[in-house]
């Protein structure tokens, strides 16, 4: 009896921990089209139109994400570091925070530095972030606060590839090996 209660309790705790930053379900409907945006980075506004000519790797995540974001951004780092400098200069990785209440541009600049020097973190108001996420078909949902006031944000875990022309051309799912991601990126450079 005690063992059954203990096993049930451990299973419930494990499920809660796994859900702490799990990918949100993808939106249902047609394929997302992407689109232009202006959000706020550490140096001021970041306008996607000003980045025409560069391939954008757009990822929606947040600073306090315990697992999904670091794993995805680590793969992005591997892809960028494996490229010759000339090709890397033609790519702009962007982390769009889905937690604008906590992720200020100053916090984002510190966080993104852990992954790659060219990765920029941007945020905006709740409405601005929701609009941009909708353009890309990225889903996210803030979870209820825990007793200590902390909370998780479940979110999509895709990386969106925007061609130098500004058109969304590919969606890379979480878990894709770095060499396959690099092949997709190379196709659109």
Query: Tally of extended strands?
Result: 9
Briefly note the structural class of the backbone: alpha/beta
Question: Which fold name corresponds to the CATH topology?
Answer: Glutaredoxin
How many structural domains? 1
* Cα shape: globular
Helix proportion range: 25-40%
Rg on CA atoms, Å: 18 Å
Strands across the major sheet, in which order? 5-4-3-8-9
Overall mean pLDDT: 87
CATH class: Alpha Beta
Give start-end ranges of low-pLDDT stretches: 1-20, 22-28
**How much of the sequence is in beta strands?**
15-25%
One letter per element, helices H and strands E, the order comes to: HEEEHHEHEHEEEEH
Distance between the termini: 61 Å
Count of individual helical segments: 6
What is the CATH-assigned architecture? 3-Layer(aba) Sandwich
Question: Can you characterise this structure?
Answer:
- With 189 residues, the chain is an alpha/beta fold.
- The chain has a single domain (21-188), classed as Glutaredoxin (3-Layer(aba) Sandwich), CATH 3.40.30.
- It has helices at 2-18, 68-82, 85-88, 105-113, 126-136, 178-188, and strands at residues 38-41, 44-47, 55-61, 91-97, 120-122, 140-142, 153-155, 159-162, 168-172.
- Strand 4 (91-97), helix 4 and strand 5 (120-122) form a beta-alpha-beta unit.
- It is globular and about 50 Å long.
- The termini are far apart.
- Residues 1-20 and 22-28 have low confidence and may be disordered.
């Amino acid at each position: 009896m005690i063992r059954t209660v203990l096993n049930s309790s451990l299973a419930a705790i494990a499920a809660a921990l796994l859900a702490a930053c799990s990918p949100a379900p993808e939106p249902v409907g047609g394929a997302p089209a992407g689109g232009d945006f202006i959000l706020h980075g550490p140096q001021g506004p970041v306008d996607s139109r000003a980045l025409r000519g560069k391939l954008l790797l757009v990822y929606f995540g947040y600073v306090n994400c315990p697992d999904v974001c670091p794993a995805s951004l680590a793969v992005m780092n591997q892809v960028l570091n494996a490229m010759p400098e000339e090709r890397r200069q033609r790519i702009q990785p962007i982390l769009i925070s889905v937690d604008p209440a906590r992720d200020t541009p100053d916090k984002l600049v510190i966080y993104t530095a852990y992954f790659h020097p060219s990765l920029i973190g941007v945020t905006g108001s709740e409405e601005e972030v929701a609009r941009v996420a909708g353009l890309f078909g990225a889903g996210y949902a803030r979870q209820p606060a825990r007793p200590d006031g902390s909370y998780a944000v479940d979110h999509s875990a895709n990386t969106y590839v925007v061609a130098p022309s500004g058109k969304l051309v590919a969606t890379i799912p979480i878990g894709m090996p770095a060499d396959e991601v690099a092949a997709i990126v190379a196709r659109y450079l």
